[in-house]
Amino acid sequence: MSMGSNIKCFREERRLTQEQVADYLSVSFQAVSSWERDEYKPDTDELIKLANVLDVSVSALVEERQNIFKTKDAIYNWEHMKTYVKTTAKNFKLYNSLKAIDYAVEAHQGQNRKCSGIPYIYHPLNLACHALSMDIIEDEIIAGCMLHDVIEDCDKDYDDLPVNDEIKDIVRILTHEKTTDENRDEVMEAYYERISKNPKASLIKCIDRCNNLTTMSWGLSRDRIYRMILETDKYYPKVMKTVKSTPEYNNAAWLLQYQIESMLDIYKRLM
Description:
Layout: H1 3-13, H2 18-25, H3 29-36, H4 44-54, H5 58-62, H6 78-91, H7 95-107, H8 122-133, H9 139-147, H10 150-154, H11 165-174, H12 184-196, H13 199-219, H14 222-244, H15 250-270
Helix pairs in contact: 2-3, 6-7, 6-8, 7-9, 8-9, 8-13, 9-11, 9-13, 12-14, 13-14, 13-15, 14-15
């Protein structure tokens, strides 16, 4: 694909109009249209700004892409996953999980995954299904998977969570404060240290990272992908060690380590 086709493709993926891009760059929408038709090319300053607006690297805009594959944001229907998780929770009397599922669906209503039209609830349901597929049928784990983002992303309070105190504590452990460039290392160091002391929180966090690694190619910029790789390399060995040292999670630890390290290796080679 040409530079113009790349610009158009990334703009449409971000659900931006030519007018919106033009406003961000302080140019006319006709200029953006001419770039996408390959009649003209943006100058260097415009190209850098354009990459920032579209949240991609400059090379992603200018390099000709020979092979275009059809991709999809979601593999399973989230409503089908919800039915599966609720049915399993009923069968195994996971009462906290049953309440957590409905609470999470309502809390995340109207939210989408980054750079997609996929409802956000797809993510926690994916985590719950991942745990169940590894034969981890624990009320605290399934409920924790469903609720792990509601405090951070939905402006909810711990006291409002319809679950027992152990699950509330797991959610608290998995929630980290907002960071800045100045305090990010300090906050993340304390965050992962806290997680590594709790086997259930460690397991959920590893499942969460598996899901985030599989979706970050369409949800994150190249710089954010790079940061995610570095963060995973730095902190996950310690969290994974906690999962491995918990006998009932031994099989899950093998699968999770394989998935995380395989995904990391793929991204590193492609980066």
